[in-house]
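Reviewers of the previous submission asked for a worked example of the structure-prediction workflow described in the proposal, so we include one complete record here. The input consisted solely of the amino acid sequence. No template or homolog information was supplied to the procedure at any stage.
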Amino acid sequence: MDTKKELRLLFNIFLFSFIILVIIGLAFFISYYFLIYLEPSFASENINYVKSASAEEINPGSEINLELSYGNSGNREVLDFEVEFFIPQHTSLKAASQPGKYNETTNSIIFESKSLKKGEGQKILVTLLADKPLDNESVLQFKDAKTNYTLSGQPVSGIIKNSAICKIKSSPVMVLSKLDLKDSDGGEINTGNIISFSFNADNTGDMNASGVKVTAVIPPKTSLIESSIVPAGYEIKDESIIWNLGAMEVNHPVDFSFEVKILKGFKDLEKISGLANLKSSQSADISSQVEAVVRLFPDLSNSTISLSDSNGEFLWAGDRILVKAMLINDGDKSAENIEFNCLIPKNSTYVKDSASCKGAGISFTQND
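From that input alone, the workflow returned the following structure tokens.
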């Protein structure tokens, strides 16, 4: 073969290959320029993120501050940009540094921009409020934020990673009030009296209590008036009233009361006591106690006195009147230093030395 023809053929092949490579390179360049270089970008996690500005461990009712950041790091403008921030369960929106539109259906707030050009973006501080109460060690679940925008008339969606972590630290705080004891008559406690015991329990913490059991001891030498027990849903066991409440919500106090009747068997100045106890699954074990003194008194109120004609007939002038007095002590204590004064009826005269009472000293005084 002619050498010149071979060289010409090789040159044509080289030229053709070069042209093909140029066309391919140009196609890649055009594709990159228009499809990649001139595209928007929200891929940079240094610009597009959601992170917490609060401690990882919080108490119920505390604020949670989150920073929502977004920006277009690409080379093309987008239109109708919006980012949707989802509010986690067990929280509520308190404030945001930029105005947004609340979506009740998705429990989210949407921040909108008409457009985002190259290098444009926002940082928004979102403040949430954790619910109260919340269980200890529960974790708030944060969802990634969602982006939507229009590019060349077509809708485009994406996400912004949410790296926030919030763990709840909480506990119930059980409170048992001072046990109160009152006599139904408002005076000193005596045999046969009705006395009432009352107290209340409350949870002032930031977590609902569970396994709550309240016990009130029935004092010895008393009779429980079961109809007086409040609240219902109790059992009586081992001389105690037991309320198995189960759960006790925060700031929902429960009032307790019952009445007993004082039986015989007490000594004068002997103490009567009441005891209430509260336990829960969260290791609460608290008690309240009260004491009072039982007084014993003589009771002569059922004593009697009678008048009669000593002859057993009609009473005439000059007749003798027989006066009989019977002193009866129905109380719980002996009466001491008794002085019984028997007044002489009007229009009558005491018969000297006619009065008698075994073991008693007798004296007579004439009243004018």
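Helices lie at 3-37. We consider this example representative of the routine output the project will generate in years two and three.
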